[in-house]
Amino acid sequence: MFGLGMPELLVVLVIVIIIFGASRLPQLGEGLGKAIKGFKKGIADSNEANKDASKPENKS
């Protein structure tokens, strides 16, 4: 995952806990999850729009 091993991820987690505090971690996780979900939805919508635009129209 992005070239990060378990030790690096633990260091990042400790730094996040120090900066934001343990009480705010659930809020940060929720916000991150919503952001990722929105990003994936936007990508899927964009791909769907591109597929629709590339289909030739039947003009009879």
Can you summarize the main beta sheet? none
Number of helices: 2
The residue ranges in which pLDDT falls below 50 over 5 or more consecutive positions are none
- The coarse silhouette is elongated
**Proportion of beta-strand residues:** under 5%
Structural class: mainly alpha
Q: Report the strand count.
A: 0
**Which series of helices and strands comes N to C?**
HH
- Residue share in helix: over 70%
Overall residue-averaged pLDDT value: 85
Distance between the termini: 51 Å
For the CA atoms, what is the radius of gyration? Answer: 20 Å
Key terms:
single chain; 60 residues; mainly alpha; 2 helices; 75% helix
Structure in a nutshell:
The protein is mainly α and 60 residues long.
Describe this structure in words.
This protein has 60 residues and is mainly alpha-helical. The chain is built from 2 helices and no strands. It has helices at residues 6-20, 25-54. The longest helix is centred in the middle third of the chain and has 30 residues, at 25-54. The protein is elongated and about 60 Å long. The mean pLDDT is 85.
Note the topology.
Layout: H1 6-20, H2 25-54
